[in-house]
């Protein structure tokens, strides 16, 4: 059996000395004698012989040996611990955290005073890096900026020192390796598997950006003191392991941890998603090895999952991280795992095991079903009673499904998502001859999935219900499916289709002579959607029409006040919100009532009343928790609004953390097409500017602008916000002409708002100010119209951050930014 040689930098001092002595002796021999000596040495010390053969093999051995020795010397020369206080880029080293075979890691802080932050500064050993290190660092920073998964530690900065040593500033994670966390917390097997799923999903999000990790191991998977999982060191392998020529001219990849390398990595190939899956299999093995069940099929299932991930051939492993995560979740939910799905009787055993807690209830249901059949037979001639029986059975099933609705109970849902999916899959056979019941159940499933923010599943169920209901001309169920599909589309950002569905829904309800309240609810949904698309005038007209009818008063108040706020009509919005909130004083809180309190908080921010905004936010948060429990995330945007208050109050790090959570929630629950995600990206961009991170801000503003521009023909009114942010970025980068153009477009968008509204006047003044900074022509509004509000404070914080950077504010006139009567927030 051949022995794979170890890499030079992994050798100990004693091993280096032995290698040096043997190499010196072999170089004095001719080729034949050298081969005999190597053959004899292989019998005694196979690892040493393999290392010597690698150094001496080939016709160009002298050149290759010279390169390897120079690399090794450079490696050891670079292994000098960095002293505290050393300045590296804009960072100051505080202390060394640790050293490894690839790099030294130090705790560092921002040294230029631009903002306060600690980072993990990774200094790569010089002898290991590619000679194109500077270029690779730049490429890695650009590529890894695409990774926005909160479970992946951020790459914040990077460069090369004057001596040519590459460095990377990464998010500092105060945590312990995942296997240590599991051991210290004595985590049970299900908890360990849930952590493993988190790792798998984080890696999968990188794979979707065509980025492989290549060095997944416990040391690169940390768990913080708050229980948050963080995956470290994406991209390091490419900096250390750029493909190099090995023996025979094949490409070899140098950067890996031998004990955690996949077979193809051990052979010198570059890391791929398949190799990451192999390493995830090793991680899974380590996490479960001392927590496996004693025996039985449950253990065999985990062994099968592990074996698939650890298959020797990449083609035999899981096809993706999603597939591996799905099998792990299936094991947790007592559902069949894919790798064992072909075994006879396996799915039935899983079904029985999964449903065991409900067997006693099912036995009762069987008896009940028998009684119902007998009753139906006895009264088969009575059509009305037969319909009543069907309605009772259907009502029971819907009640069972509703127990998975988190709005109805603080307890854990009775049915998991997997069980709901299986319930839908079984409808085809179980209700094939009862289309009306089937449609009703599909609509119920759609509603439950929507309430749980499982929007893809919700859309599928509603669409199935709509198609079947149309085939069967079931008018009432068509109405439910249209309503549900439109609602899902609003949440997920599919506004064009949702608008068409809502207009169809309004027409069908009018034609059917439905109750005015039903028609009003559809109009309010349409008004809400038109507001999201930026068509404020049409949205306000519809919402006011419903408000005057007195129907759905709280819902109507929210939509009307929201549109008026975004038109800048602050006083009118307040006149709607306050009576709606105070009018229900002493009555039980509802989710809609809590939303009104949150909207009042945002209105106060726009008005510049920060203390009143904080009180309103605190009140809404307390009501939110009392009504829905601590863990219910139905009002996702509450984090974004709290972050806006933190930003305007100068609590920049808190604002960044809250917005990062909001961005992750929006992307997960609403999808990347949501207008709310675009708004949150804009806010996070301004926080990034306030913290001096121009590159992050530019990327977020561009993403937000692209989404807002896609929502409607013509300019979305809120597109002015990312445009002004991009103008500030351009000035900070000395691209004055580009900044002037962007600010000019933003100013024109804001001029389309009502000229008499308080907020619109302020917003035009702010846009005009940025345009004048860029050298454009613009008439400033009167001084009394420039009162400080959310838009102004956000700009001020951004300007303060840009003007306080080490490189300065670029083309920004940082010495001329104070205006009489305004806080000196942007003083450099």
List the helices and strands and how they pair.
Layout: H1 13-27, H2 31-44, H3 46-56, H4 61-78, E1 87-88, E2 91-99, E3 103-110, E4 118-124, H5 133-144, E5 155-160, E6 166-171, E7 175-177, H6 178-184, H7 189-207, E8 221-224, E9 229-231, H8 236-240, E10 244-245, E11 251-252, H9 263-266, H10 273-288, H11 297-309, H12 321-332, H13 346-354, H14 359-378, H15 383-402, H16 417-430, H17 435-451, H18 455-471, H19 475-492, H20 495-511, H21 516-532, H22 536-549, H23 553-566, H24 570-582, H25 591-607, H26 610-628, H27 638-648, H28 652-670, H29 675-690, H30 694-709, H31 720-732, H32 736-751, H33 758-773, H34 790-803
Antiparallel strand pairs: 1-2, 2-3, 3-4, 4-6, 5-6, 7-8, 8-9, 10-11
Mind explaining what this structure looks like?
The chain has 828 residues and is of the alpha+beta class. It is 60% helix and 6% strand. The protein contains 34 helices and eleven strands. Strands 1-2-3-4-6-5 form a six-stranded antiparallel beta sheet, covered by helices on one side. It has a three-stranded antiparallel beta sheet with strand order 7-8-9. It has a two-stranded antiparallel ribbon with strand order 10-11. A hairpin with a 5-residue loop joins strand 5 and strand 6 (166-171). It is globular, with a radius of gyration of 32 Å. The termini are far apart.
